[in-house]
Structure formats: structure tokens, C-alpha cells
Write a structure and sequence with these properties.
By secondary structure, the chain is mostly helical. 63% of the residues lie in helices and 0% in strands. The chain is globular, with a radius of gyration of 21 Å. The C terminus is likely disordered.
Length: 202
């Protein structure tokens, strides 16, 4: 609000239209084209040298990519090269998945891969959940919610996945968490007569 109070009087004085923040497009192509050049000096959270380097590598072209970009920026893992590997893997897989199952597996795998990069004290749980749901939203799939009540089972699933080198363990856990939420959403789209929404048959 304070920024608009500084900008709009100048716009009026110069004979230009004022800025309405509610009507700024979130998919403005020239803005994302400029962002990809990493010319982000004075742009909040995007102006550090490390962040500019990550922008050049990730090449974000939508708002969801920007969310993933900020979530991925952690100096320790960046210096180790692990984030480079993750970005390469994710960009490669995003162009391959087609079915709902493949998309879910990609989201679960992304969560597992990123949670394995960051130490738990570094907020990796939130970051990894953000990346997982970024994958879901990119393909217009429902958000995956991991219950705090089952966090110890979650830790066990992570440990078993690493120990047994079996990605299906964490995939199964995440699907078990996801299923009740899906069932809840299905109930919400049923009409009063019990007739299901057309999307339930897809």
C-alpha cells in the first residue's frame, strides 16, 4: 500500500493511469522474459548473486516456478551441486509425465528427493511439501496434505525408503495420506440427489 501511495501520485502528475494492484496480470510474458535474464537487482528475495545464478539455471516462466525458485534457494545445498541435480531431474521429468499416476509419482518423488537434500532443521519439510504441491498444481491436480498427526509414520517411511532404496514406500505413504482428502473432495462435488459430478467419471 505504501508503494502505491508513492507511485500513483507520480503517475497522475505525469498524466498516466494509476496502478491497480488487483489488476496486475500474473502471466505477463514480458515480465517473465525479463526475469529469465536474471536482471533482478532490487527485486525482493531475487537480488542476491546466488539467486540470480539459480534463476538462470531454472528459467522460471510462471508464478508457480517462482514459488519453487524461492523454496529451492538454500546456500548449503546449492554449493554442493545437489540442487543442480534436482533441477535437471525435475525439468526432464516434467516433460515426460502424462497420466495422473505418473504426475502423482513425480510429485511424491520430488518431495522425497528434496527432503533428502536439506537437513530437517533447515525447514526442508515445508520446502519439500511446497515443491510437491507445485508439481500437482502445474498439472491442475489436487493439493497433497500431509497430516501432522502422522509425522512419526512419515519419518519412518522416509527412513525405510532410504534404507531399502525403495521409492514405493514413500509413494505409498503419501498416497495413503492423500486418499482421505480426495474422498472428502469427491463428497463435496456430489449434488443433493446423490448424482456425482461429471469429473468423477474421468
Amino acid at each position: 500500500d505504501w508503494a502505491l501511495k508513492m507511485i500513483n501520485p507520480r503517475m497522475i502528475a505525469e498524466g498516466n493511469d494509476t496502478i491497480d494492484i488487483d489488476h496486475i496480470p500474473l502471466d505477463d510474458r514480458p515480465s517473465f522474459k525479463l526475469l529469465k535474464t536474471a536482471e533482478t537487482t532490487a527485486v525482493f528475495q531475487l537480488e542476491s548473486r546466488g539467486m540470480k545464478d539459480l534463476i538462470r539455471r531454472l528459467q522460471p516462466d510462471n508464478l508457480e516456478d517462482m514459488i519453487a525458485l524461492v523454496a529451492l534457494f538454500r546456500p548449503g545445498p546449492l554449493e554442493s551441486g545437489m540442487v543442480d541435480d534436482f533441477c535437471s531431474w525435475a525439468n526432464n521429468q516434467l516433460n515426460k509425465v502424462k497420466t495422473t499416476e505418473e504426475i502423482f509419482n513425480l510429485a511424491a518423488d520430488a518431495h522425497y528427493k528434496l527432503v533428502s537434500i536439506h537437513p530437517f532443521i533447515d525447514g526442508n519439510g515445508r520446502t519439500s511439501r511446497a515443491i510437491m504441491n507445485y508439481m500437482q498444481l502445474r498439472f491442475t491436480k489436487p493439493l497433497i496434505i500431509l497430516s501432522q498427526d502422522n509425522r512419526f509414520e512419515y519419518y519412518k517411511a522416509l527412513q525405510r525408503t532410504r534404507k531399502e532404496e525403495d521409492i514405493s514406500i514413500i509413494r505409498t505413504f503419501i498416497m495413503d495420506e492423500h486418499t482421505p482428502n480426495l474422498e472428502h473432495e469427491i463428497e463435496k462435488v456430489k449434488d443433493p440427489n446423490g448424482v456425482k459430478d461429471i469429473f468423477l467419471d474421468l
